[in-house]
Amino acid sequence: MTETKMGLRELKKAQTRENISHNATRLFLERGFDNVTIADVAAAAQVAKMTVTNYFPRKEDLALDLHDVFVGMLARTVRERGPGESALAALRRAFLAAVAAHDAVIGFSGEPFARMITESPALVARLREFHDEREAVLAEALAEETGAGPEDTRPKVAAALLGGVHQVLFEETLRRTIAGQTHEEIAAALTPAAEEAFGLLEPSLGGYAIR
Questions:
Q1: What pLDDT is attached to residue 66?
Q2: Which of 141, 167, 144, 139 is nearest to 154 (CA)?
């Protein structure tokens, strides 16, 4: 297969995935996540039901379709930290930049979407799995970056602390979003909250995993 044909094929796959995701989100916001079926999404996107499940094996991932970005973001930040920068410093810097950018991945999703998530037990449970997966991936990255052996628990402990701060701040963003605050208001409140939260970890992790 030529590069042109491969490029067109990948483009079509991306367009199909985007079409499915767009229609799923629209239906979820209109009816509520638990009131929409895979068949409903397939009909709205004008594709077969099997096509939907091929792209999104779990219904929850139709609503939370940034799984890979979300799960890998902390580990990626650690791996890309600058010379002399600790894992804590890199993650604090990246989070504050995401707050300033009103990044949807850290919770700036808008009130209708935030309410849809929090009102669905299935989505709340799936989001909890995202946080757990992200922590595990971060622990692996910290172990690699520090040369920790399999018996060394420090990467897992550090990942639990760092992942916990991100989860608390994510949930705070959702709470403020549902309360009707604007992105600007949330960012103004979240910035000092994040500074304080990361600051609490400074005594234990300030000198850990410095490049």
A1: 87
A2: 139
Token reading at 107: 């919770």
Mean pLDDT over each residue of the chain, to the nearest integer: 95
The tens digit of pLDDT for each residue in 50-105 reads 999 999 999 999 999 889 999 999 999 999 999 999 999 999 999 999 999 999 99
Contacts 24+ apart (CB under 8 A), 185-188: 186/108, 187/99, 187/100, 187/102
Q: At a CB cut-off of 8 Å and minimum separation 6, what does 25 contact?
A: 62, 63, 113
DSSP conformation letters of 137-156: HHHHHHHHHHT--TT--HHH
Structure tokens that stand for 148 in this block:
């920790």
Report residue 170 as tokens: 């994510």
The span from the CA of 21 to the CA of 65, in Å, is 7
Q: What pLDDT digit, counting tens, does each position of 53-66 carry?
A: 999 999 999 999 88
What domains appear along the chain, each with residue ranges and CATH number? Answer: 3-58 (1.10.10.60), 67-205 (1.10.357.10)
For the residues of 168-188, what is the DSSP string, one character each?
HHHHHHHHHHHTT--HHHHHH
Taken as a whole, the chain contains a residue count of 211
Question: Which whole number is the average pLDDT over 121-144?
Answer: 97
Cβ 87 vs Cβ 158: under 8 Å: yes
What is residue 6's predicted lDDT score, i.e. its pLDDT? 59
Retrieve residue 73's tokens. Answer: 């973001």
